[in-house]
Write a structure and sequence with these properties.
This protein is 12% helix and 37% strand. The protein contains one helix and 13 strands, in the order H-E-E-E-E-E-E-E-E-E-E-E-E-E. Strands 1, 3, 4, 6, 9, 10, 11 and 13 form an eight-stranded antiparallel beta sheet that branches. A five-stranded antiparallel beta sheet has the order 2-5-12-7-8, with no helix packed on it.
Length: 209
């Protein structure tokens, strides 16, 4: 009888241990996903003008004719998420970070929103942190030649954009809005033109409920 009790106790302990391991694995769903290794384009796909992209000191560097670098490292589309990156612009440079978009062979991405990257690019008054042609930021919250933290948080129809921990956009999309609009999809980084140089590094994303 004593042996039977020990056996039952051991089995119960094993079940609890396995259950704890399973719970731990589930908890990882809400952890940060590192989107780049800083050395290669693994997990990313360039749609046109491949020479517009290079890698320097762990950063994707956008400089050249129009091109977009799409994240393809996770087969499951992103809906609610917290995205974070470090971004740096050279003087008079334009770029962007698209979300809820989809890979396309050429052209400006048709789906999703573009979070603007532009501190001193004079031809366009829409500055860093704005949702392009939706929520305009007219005074740049960051400077050229230094990395700044760029965060995009989407929950349902609510979008928050933060630059260096300061909220610059807090937007709730109206029901039934047409493009640009929230749905689900992936991310894309923009190379805007040959005169613009933008650096993107330490990209990561966390799925939200």
């Amino acid at each position: 009888m004593h042996r039977n009790r020990l056996l039952v106790a051991a089995l119960l302990g094993l079940v609890l241990h396995v259950g704890a391991l399973s719970l731990s694995a589930d908890d990882k769903d809400g952890e940060w996903i590192q989107m780049s290794d800083g050395k290669s384009f693994d997990g990313w796909k360039i749609n046109e003008n491949e020479k517009s992209w290079s890698i320097e000191e762990g950063a994707f560097v956008a400089k050249g004719p129009r091109s977009h670098l799409f994240y393809v490292g996770d087969g499951k589309p992103f809906k609610n998420f917290h995205f974070q990156a470090e971004v740096k612009t050279k003087a008079n440079s334009n770029g962007g970070i698209f979300f809820h978009t989809k890979f396309q062979e050429e052209g400006w991405p048709k789906l999703g929103y573009e979070a603007q990257v532009n501190n001193t690019y004079k031809p366009d008054p829409q500055k860093t942190g704005g949702l392009y042609n939706t929520v305009r930021v007219l005074e740049a919250p960051a400077k050229d030649d230094v990395y700044f933290k760029y965060e995009i948080i989407v929950e349902g129809l609510h979008v928050v954009v933060k630059i260096d921990d300061k909220t610059v956009v807090d937007y709730t999309q109206p029901e039934g809005k047409e493009q640009p609009a929230l749905s689900e999809g992936t991310f894309a980084l923009q190379a805007h033109d040959p005169g613009s140089t933008v650096y993107y590094k330490n990209l990561k994303v966390k799925r939200l409920p």
